[in-house]
Design goal:
six-stranded antiparallel β-barrel, Thrombin, subunit H, 8 strands, mainly beta
Length: about 120
């Protein structure tokens, strides 16, 4: 496990189109929900999911980072932040699109007990 990192105020971060499974939950809750990321930056995550969370909800998120060029999973990221935008999508399936900040993060090995089983 790598120590917690904190992001400093800086210009808008470059976004990377990374589609992967994300598990998330409201801080203080036991159960995890699952969704799919669309893009990730150093300061936030944009993802789609079925469970609805309100703006300003504090969340914990865990997702794998892909290994460049292989499609395989590398380390996992465990991060804390908050929902800053939620919009119900009109597309079939009724997912909600979420924008969440990343305020603190930690890199995890794939065998870490902090990784939810659903990821």
């Amino acid at each position: 496990m790598i120590p917690w990192g904190r992001l400093q105020d800086s210009p808008p971060a470059e976004r990377f189109a990374i589609e992967t499974t994300i598990c998330y939950r409201e801080i203080g809750q036991e159960g995890w929900h699952q969704g799919k990321t669309e893009n990730i930056s150093a300061s936030g995550v944009f993802f789609r999911a079925r469970n609805i969370l309100a703006d300003k909800t504090r969340v914990e998120m865990v997702f794998p980072l892909p290994v460049r060029g292989s499609g395989a999973s590398g380390p996992y990221v465990r991060c804390f932040g908050q929902i800053v935008r939620a919009a119900r999508l009109a597309a079939p399936g009724g997912d909600t699109a979420f924008a969440a900040t990343i305020e603190e993060y930690q890199l995890l090995r794939s065998d870490s007990p902090a990784i939810p089983l659903q990821v």
